[in-house]
Design brief:
Distance between the termini: 22 Å
GO molecular function: methyltransferase activity
Keywords: DNA damage, Methyltransferase, Transferase
Shape: globular
CATH architecture: Orthogonal Bundle
Protein name: DNA methyltransferase
Number of strands: 2
Strand content: under 5%
Structural class: mainly alpha
Pfam families: DNA_binding_1
CATH topology: Arc Repressor Mutant, subunit A
Largest sheet: 2 strands, parallel
DNA sequence: GCCATGGCTAGTA
DNA sequence: GCCATGGCTAGTA
């Protein structure tokens, strides 16, 4: 496992319930401001194994970015259970819910 | 070659 | 809506 990957995993783990971070924000915190897509890949391949709170990661617009329908719906439900609601436009208010690593 | 991005711009209203 | 981006992995040799 590469240092960047380990960093990203640690950062995602530390996001508390009721808060979210963006892909780019996590990448930047891990020391690679352009590495947003790596965060995507890491979530994809390592969420299960490492028990990551994958649902607390959204895109920079405040949207749920998952493309697969079932998981997308699941993410919305879990976030709601944690007190995070999406507005009519499907957006989450980052000014309220963003976690600053 | 993948990818659940992000940021900028052209084009509409 | 377009496209540059980058760290890693699956798959081949």
């Amino acid at each position: 496992m590469q240092p960047f990957t380990q960093q990203v995993i640690d950062i995602i783990r530390a996001i508390p319930s009721g808060k979210v971070m963006t892909y780019g924000q996590i990448a930047a915190t891990a020391g690679s401001p352009r590495g947003a897509r790596q965060v995507v890949r890491i979530l994809h391949t390592m969420s299960d194994k490492h028990g990551l709170p994958w649902h607390r990661v959204i895109n920079a617009k405040g949207e749920i970015a998952i493309t697969e329908d079932e998981s997308r719906f699941l993410q919305k439900i879990i976030l709601e259970e944690e007190g995070i609601k999406t507005n009519e436009a499907g957006r989450i208010d980052l000014s309220v819910h963003r976690y600053n690593g």
